[in-house]
Design brief:
alpha+beta; five-stranded mixed β-sheet; 5 helices; globular
């Protein structure tokens, strides 16, 4: 799993961000925690329930984590806000292509 250096979280996950990341590493179950990741397909982001990471068949090595949210609605809103802020920051709507080009600088292995 790779984590975005400027990991984005909602208000509910801000205080416990390190605890959530530690639990993700240890494959511990968490209720109502969602991961915002770079999409493997043509979309910009995928939203996964943290329970998916407990499955052995889930490809953990290909996950690029961009954000954490508590609740599905919060995860959807956070992904929209993240897309809008990054498109203004980088002056492009092709967010995924910028991430793909700069993966080495923007992400760290976890």
């Amino acid at each position: 799993m790779y984590i975005y250096k400027d990991l984005v979280t909602d208000e509910a996950c801000e205080k416990s961000k390190n605890k959530i990341l530690r639990k993700l590493r240890m494959h511990a179950g968490m209720v109502d925690v969602y991961l915002i990741c770079l999409a493997n397909g043509s979309d910009n982001f995928d939203i996964y329930d943290s329970a998916c990471l407990k499955q052995k068949a889930f490809p953990r090595d290909t996950i690029y984590l961009v954000g954490l949210a508590k609740g599905k609605e919060s995860a959807l809103q956070l992904s929209i806000d993240l897309y809008l802020s990054l498109s203004q920051k980088w002056d492009t709507l092709l967010i995924k292509q910028v991430f793909e080009k700069q993966k080495a600088e923007l992400f760290r292995r976890y």
